[in-house]
Amino acid sequence: MRKVTYLLGAGASHNKLPILREFSDELGGFANVLKHVIARSQVFLVNNNNILNTEEDILEGQNIPVANNLYTQIHSVIQELWKHQTVDTLAKKHYLNNNISQLQILKNVLSIFFLFKQLINVNPNPGIVSLIPGYIPDNRYDSFIAALVGTQKGKFDLPGNVNIITWNYDVQFELAFREYKNDTIAKIQKENQILPSTAWYKEDTSSYSSGKFSLIRLNGIIGIKSLKSMEDKLQDTYIDDLIARPTINELCNIFTDLDKTDELSWEKSISFFNYNWEYQYENVGNVYQGYNQIHQYARKIMENTDILIVIGYSFPIFNRKFDADLIKRLVNNCKHIYIQDQYPKIIAERIRSIIPPIAGGPLTGDPVRPGTNIIGITPLEDLNQFYLPNELTT
Prior knowledge:
Elements: E1 4-8, H1 23-48, H2 63-81, H3 87-96, H4 100-119, H5 139-148, E2 162-166, H6 172-178, H7 185-191, E3 194-195, E4 214-217, H8 238-244, H9 248-258, H10 291-303, E5 307-311, H11 320-327, E6 336-340, H12 344-354, E7 376-380
Parallel strand pairs: 1-2, 1-5, 2-4, 3-4, 5-6, 6-7
C-alpha cells in the first residue's frame, strides 16, 4: 500500500485552538475568565469562609494567589505579543537573547492556555463562569480516526501506511482517539508511536517500527508531567488530571507544578515542549533528550512518503530550514502532494520554492504522466474534514 503522510500546522486544530493571528485576542479571553473566577472565589471565601456547593468554578483558598500570578503572567505575555507578529516570534526572541526564564514563563502560559482551550468548556453567559461537563475534540480528528480504524469491533489499530508529522503541540489527536479506546494519554501514545512522550522516553530506536502508524510532533507537546524515573513512563499526564477534574482550580494546581524553578527532575515537564529551533548543542540541557530520534523518524517518514497531505500549514520562515530538509526528502518516492488550506495555491508556491525542478506540475488533480519527474500538486479548499485520498487504500 502507498505510504501516506500528513503534515499538519495550526490550521489542523483551528476548530478548538487559535491560529497565530488570533492568539492575543483568545489569550485575553482566557485572562478575562480567570479574572472572573478569582473575583467570584474571593467573594465566596469572604462570605462563607468555605467553598459552597455551586455550579460555578470556585478556587480553593490557596489557589487564589496562584491564579493571580497566572493572570499577571498572561498579561505580561499579551503586552509582549503587541510588539511581535506571532507568539512563535516572541519565543524565538527570548531564545536568541538567552532569556531562558522568560521563555519558560511563555511556555508555562501557553501550556495552561492550551490545556484550558482543549479540556475546559466554559458557559458563554458573561454573567457566570460555569462548567459544561466533558471535553469536545476538533470533530475533524474524530471523523479522521473513525475512517482509519476500520469496522472490526473492539479493534482500534491505525493503518501502518499512515503517518502524521505535526508542528502543533496540542493533544487533539489523543483526545479524539480516547473517544474510541478509553485509556490514559500515555498508553495511547505508547501504542500508537506518538512522540515525544514519557511513554517513548529514551526508547531504543529498534523499538520504533516504520511499518506501523506514528505521530511525530516537531515542536513537542504540552501537558506532560515531569519524569523522575524510568518507572514513571506510563504515568498519568496533566491531560488525564483535567479530564477527571476539568476546573480552573485544577489548572492552578498544574500551573503550580510547572512554575517550580527550584525542583530538579530527571526530565522536566517543560522540556517535552520545545520549538524545533531550540534543538541545538548549547541548549541540550533544556530540551527533550530524545529529540534526535524525533528528527530521525520524521526524516525517514518523508523519504518513504508516496503521498503527502499538507493541512493548515503555511511553511513559516522560522521553520524554513527544517521544512526544506523534510520536503527535499520527497524527491525519490513522492507521487503527489495535496494541500488542504484556506489559501492552498500560496502554500504550493512555497513548496515549489524548496524543490522547484520537482514540484513544478500544474495545480490539478490529474495524475502525473509516467516517466516524468514532477510531483503533482492538488489544492483543496474544503476544510470541513481532513482529506482522505484514494491512494490511502491502494
